[in-house]
Amino acid sequence: MTTVAGPLAVEAGSVPGAVRFTPARATLVLGGLLALVLAAVGTAALLGEYPVDLLHALADPASADGRVLFGLRIPRAVLGALVGASLAASGSALQALLRNPLADPFVLGVSGGAALGATLALALGLQALAGPSLFAFLGAVAAMALVLAAGRARSSPYAALLTGVVFNAFAAAVITCIKTLLTPDRLGEVLYWLAGSLGYERPRTLLLGGALQLVALGVLWAESARLNLLSLGDEEASSLGVPVRRTRALVLLAASLSVAGAVALAGLVGFVGLIVPHLLRLWLGPDQRLLVPASALGGAAFLVLADALTRVLFPVFHAEPPVGVVTAVLGGPLFVWLLNRREQPA
Amino acid sequence: MIAALLSVALLGAAADPGPLRMLGPAPRGEVRRLVTLAPSLTEVVLALGAADRLVGVSRFDERPEVSRLPRVGGFVDPSVEAVMALHPDLVLAQPGPGNRRAVETMAALGAPVLLLPLGTVADVLAAERAAGKALGRAEQGESLARELEATRARIRERARLRSPVRVLLVYGFEPLVVAGPGGFADELLADAGAVNVAADAASPYPVYSVERALRSRPEVILDAADTAAGRDRLRALPGLHEARWAAVPGQALLHPGPALGRGLEQLFQLLHPEAAP
Amino acid sequence: MTAPALRTAALAVGYGTRPVVSEVSLSVAPGTLWAVLGPNGSGKSTLLRTVLGLLRPLGGEVTLFGTPLARWERRALARRVAWVPQAFDGDAGFTGLELVLMGRAPHQGGWGLPGPRDLAVARAALVELGIAHLAGRVVSQLSGGERRLLLVARALAQEPALLLLDEPTAFLDLQHQAQVLERVRARVRAGLGAIAVLHDPNLAAAFADSVLLLRDGRVLGQGPSVELLDAERLGRLYGLGLAEARTEAGHRLFAPRGTP
Question: Which residues of A touch B74 (CB under 8 A)?
């Protein structure tokens, strides 16, 4: 028997331990996770092929050391934090909204749209106009519009989910077709993009991406109390005063935009959106008011560290493996271990 | 294997390789530390006699001369940090959409980058001259280029005396990847008096329709594939069965670089075995 | 005279286009407990859902506290009407107290942070139903009956003026069945209006002021329970022969005829 807190005999005015979301606890947990993110970024700043003298780099940002630190390591870590935050927080929100612990942020078809957009851009050689990221984002937005329209047409929560799944399958089929038609040189580029990796983005791109994530994840956090109620079921939530259709549309929209922004910049980085919310849920409970921001921070730290690991692995393969591979290899066994630990009799 | 095939194909530039140009700051003084991002470019450097300047190569480089040098990544994924850690005076790269961001980042961080497309024979000539000039071995670069031009002229002369031969140059059987129009292989075939039956394809390294290959009835099929998988099945097909199958010896014909001249001569011998060498 | 908590006029309810039951004209006054009885599939739960606004009426009108259902704003309605659903379908990772506190949502702001009053009301609801010990337990480890009690507690925490209960006694042992209905009864005496879908006519006889009998898509009868509940009418309702008896205290009991 797992007892979260003792019996109900507490003084009036204090919050019993049975309630797991309190400002105090939230501050503690989120503050701790924020520290973890900063530590991860700091670690990532130290790892890479180029031997950076940290003190020299900080003292003289214009020096070679400084330019590697501020031009390569830090932007890449920031990108990793943005993408990781987006995928994990969206994953958590979607798991609550769809009432499905297996939901990951790609389930809505947004990833299929992004992959299709980028693949088409690379296949048709459209890079002269703009990088594949822009086309990926456009593809993601198109997919999102399709899925949301389908969800609105019917009141079932599964309409959006099914449309997303079907769209993903459709996009995957089209991509496979394109892959067979491509010349081998183009194919390499497409495969590389699809595998998901963190590159070096310009500050302006990072600012845009950061602003998007701030807004989208902010909306998700603002709706998190209603997400809790929604996880009880549409009818119960409605009976408790939640505007179900509006909330669902808002959460889907915010999550889709967030994931679109992440996939446009980093490709299809798997596992983060599934594993991080689950790990945190085992520790923190299912309250989305805590899980959404915690997942954002946890996902950021996780991806930054995974990406740093890809750099560490460079001497082994003479290539940095796609970061999605590392997240799977790291996250999978960790999750299984944690799950087993919890199942042990107390 | 597939990697070799990909590398063969990738070494030829993509349909839109981008022009020969310099990115980043101009090299200061003599180039003592050189990094190449593709084996073909390493070949050029070796032919220029500048092997001692190399400090880093791609992970696809297999020449024994560079076996001890650190690897800095692949075609679509060169590692910016690995390159910068070598403090290069000059980086040689084949321009392509995949490495564009990485190469631009290197230039922005202060590494001079010379982009050398290697799609056509003209590209190769220009690359040899430009690389020679950049490495302070302009004479050698010029002489490499002249040598290739002379070889081409000589072979074209000899080919004029013979009737054209219908040829299909095969890089791989499963799927069927051939030499299409627009690349250096196509040009060399023309030099050697061959008619490329795959000239109707869409790109220099197309995946070609087997049935169309049958219909084209080549007289000679040049086998440049590195695995025999699928060869026997294709060979048994009507239209291909009657052709003379000849294996391309070595890599000289396959890599765009200084060895193309030798490759052209091999090609001529393969197509016209009756001619005196 | 105060407006009835609920009034329906010729209400037809159902999913899709075919009504499951129609011509329901009901008036539930504050301080009365109605029981809805009928065989399976007679539309009892559907009726509750429609009255709450979760389903669109297929015909007729629903008026709550004097205002038509369509004009009620969701949250405002949630502050007056509470619903105890038939099944618990949600995330089972919440603790008992967290679940009950969700009943305070219609009274709270965007974050749902519980104030002292919210905690007091939630705590009182748990104590009232005798499940204070479930406050810290995670729902996934509770039995069906315990979860059901939490759902009732949550509805009570909403501090409603009208309480809709869908089979509140399912899965409960005898003690808790009686306890739940007694607590509801006590609240009703204090002014709450309540409608409970019950599967056991004996409970209706013991606790309800009025009954609504549904069968074959129609209202078979409605009115004070002492008048309506007799073996003959109940026999017609459930389609089997019933015998009636009285306890020493004078309470009526119904059982299928022929039971030893």
Answer: 318-319
